[in-house]
């Protein structure tokens, strides 16, 4: 472990819950930011309708061959 000596300064019974708790808080804040700053995400959760893809234009007719 690269930073194994950190546990000589911070007790693992204190440090691990603080580390995992801070990761949890950051994840909740990111999810809240996504939910409050986008219009598509709440619609996605509610099962909003999907816009139909635009129809492809018809291919142009080939010119008549001369004989």
From TrEMBL:
Keywords: Antenna complex, Bacteriochlorophyll, Cell membrane, Chlorophyll, Chromophore, Light-harvesting polypeptide, Magnesium, Membrane, Metal-binding, Transmembrane, Transmembrane helix. One of its GO terms (cellular component) is plasma membrane. One of its GO terms (biological process) is photosynthesis, light reaction. It is a single-pass type II membrane protein. Residues 4-41 form the Antenna complex alpha/beta subunit domain. The chain crosses the membrane at residues 14-35. Its main location: membrane. GO terms for molecular function: bacteriochlorophyll binding; metal ion binding. The keyword DNA repair does not apply. It is found in: Cell inner membrane. NCBIfam families: pufA_517_ASD. Antenna complexes are light-harvesting systems, which transfer the excitation energy to the reaction centers. This is Antenna complex, alpha/beta subunit. It comes from Rhodopseudomonas palustris (strain HaA2).
């Amino acid at each position: 472990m690269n930073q194994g000596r950190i546990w000589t300064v911070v007790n693992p019974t204190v440090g691990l819950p603080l580390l995992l708790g801070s990761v949890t808080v950051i994840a909740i804040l990111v999810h809240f930011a996504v939910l409050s700053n986008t219009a598509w995400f709440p619609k996605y959760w509610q099962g909003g309708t999907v816009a139909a893809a635009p129809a492809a234009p018809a291919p142009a007719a080939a010119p008549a061959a001369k004989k």
